[in-house]
Amino acid sequence: MNTLEEVKLIVEGKNKSIPFAQDVDRLIRNSQVLTDNAAKIRYALDSLQNKGINLVINADFKNNVVRIFDYDFEELVKNGYYPKIEDNKGIIILDGVKFEAQLNPNQAEEFKKIVEPFNFWYTDKNANSYEAFKQVIKEVPVESIEHHTYNDDFANWFENALYKKEMSEKILELKDAHFEGENLRNALIEVFL
To answer: Would you write out the chain's pLDDT as a tens digit for each of its 193 residues?
Structure first.
């Protein structure tokens, strides 16, 4: 019996071939994921088109990734999107879709200088550099410091926005030490010395 005949029997309810039926179910689920991802990518591409970006290199519907040209990546950054740089690859997440561009080393270094500001909860303070963070941490309420420390916000920002993995690890160690209040603030200040 060929595959088409087996599918026909399954559809008619005459063949209960479980392994094949499971394969069909898996294909249907995968098809739905691809359809959902295609819709997300279409929506994100429509947003880009409104910003004058009309060309893409390719789209990976399975992984929700769109590859764009470096000059379009630069245009997104100029439009206020914050880049993440990994191995000379620029990444911007827009509407749940990852936009990637291959960058030359000079471009990558320039884009690393563009830092998404860290906004502190319970205050209107923010920091967009290591130096600004060291100052603001002295001024914000301890509730904000506790919130961001114990939700890994500080650690993630240091690693992903400032590219300071070693500092991120030190902050995670403070979290594990369970400091609170002013003791936590003072411990963070010590890390930055």
So the answer is: 555 566 566 556 665 555 555 665 666 676 787 788 888 888 888 888 887 787 888 888 888 899 999 999 999 898 888 999 999 999 999 888 999 999 999 999 999 999 899 999 989 999 999 999 999 999 999 999 999 999 999 999 999 899 999 999 999 999 999 999 999 999 999 988 7
Which residue, 96, 89, 62, 87, is CA-closest to 73?
A: 89
Report the alpha-carbon distance of residue 43 to residue 2 in Å, rounded: 40
Task: Say if residue 4 is exposed, middle or buried (CB neighbours under 10 Å; 0-12, 13-18, 19+).
Answer: exposed
Token couple for 87: 């191995």
User: Token pair of 126, please?
Assistant: 């923010």
Domain coordinates in residue numbering, the chain: 1-114, 118-192
Q: Where are the beta strands (DSSP E) in 44-110?
A: 58-60, 65-67, 84-86, 89-94, 97-102
